[in-house]
Amino acid sequence: MLKKIFFQIHWILGISAGLILALMGVTGAIYSYDQQILKLINQDSYVVQAQASPKLTPAELYQYFQKKSPEIKINSITIVKDPTASSTVNIQKEGERRGYNMMVNPYTAEVLPEIKGRGFFQFVQQLHRTLTFGPVGKQITGACTLILIFFVLSGLYLRWPKKHSWRQWLFVKPKLKGRNFIWDLHAVVGTWVVVFYLILACTGLYWSYDWWRDGMFKIMGVERPQPQMQGNTGTRDDSPASPNRNAE
User: Fold this and answer.
1) Least enclosed by CB within 10 Å: which of 6, 48, 167, 176?
2) pLDDT at position 237, please?
3) Using DSSP, how many helices (H) and how many strands (E) does the chain show?
4) Strand order, beta sheet including 74-78
5) Is residue 245 helix, strand or coil?
6) How many CA atoms lie within 13 A of 216 on its CB side?
7) What is the pLDDT of residues 147-167, one digit of tens each?
């Protein structure tokens, strides 16, 4: 009786929350390659001609833009060791919560062409995290991620055999036909990915619920980092120790 109840819940959630989880999986996979794809289609923004002279330091870039465009408020400057890689100047911009990355030539401070495709990946990220529905969508994706954990646990319970065999758990029975074969295929594939699903769900919930995030830090025995106020980089500062200037 209990197995029948779990099966019905497993099935109903599978054709409802399962669709959202599939969308989250596809968009998450696409977004995980955003930097590689953006660099591939924006060579003029990411790649420069290497020169014999050293790259401009973060302090030099900061002072250059403070003199040329004092209205720009710089959050951070990132220098990459690769001699052909451009530098990144992150500036404050309306609508950009984490700032806007402006790519510059590390030898001349020339502003490089704007990166194409950012809007697409921002949309993919929002689709993955909130289904583009804001706080309501965030609650939906969070709930679906919790349901994924239920899928894993209930699936193991429903599949638990009376007689255990590693072949039964890990290999499809090719002699089965029709619905029995589909059921066996579903069960075997589910067994292979159960660990990955649990890792994805447990880490994904970090961005969904504060109580889950706090619990993770407590379990790991580390203190949760506190957000820090961004320093005001908009004021003119001739000293080389301006805030948030980084080098890689």
Assistant:
1) 167
2) 37
3) 10, 3
4) 74-78, 87-93, 96-104
5) strand
6) 16
7) 999 999 999 898 887 666 778
Q: Give the whole-angstrom CA distance, residue 39 versus residue 51.
A: 21
**Model's pTM, two decimal places?**
0.78
Structure-block tokens of residue 41? 């289609």
pLDDT (tens digit, 9 = 90+) per residue, 69-81?
Answer: 999 999 999 999 9
List, as one string, the DSSP characters of 88-99: EEEEEETTEEEE
How far is 234 from 66, CA to CA, in rounded Å? 8
Q: Which of 95, 53, 55 shows the shortest CA–CA distance to 77?
A: 55
Q: What angle do CA 98, 59, 55 make, to 5 degrees?
A: 100
DSSP 85-148: BPEEEEEEETTEEEEEEEEE-TTT-PBPPPPTTHHHHHHHHHHHHHTTSHHHHHHHHHHHHHHH
What is the per-residue DSSP string for 43-83? HHHHB----SSPPPPHHHHHHHHHHH-TT--EEEEE--SST
List the chain domain ranges: 2-32+123-208, 44-115+224-248
**In which residue are the tokens 């402006």 written?**
102
- Which one-letter amino acid corresponds to residue 231? G
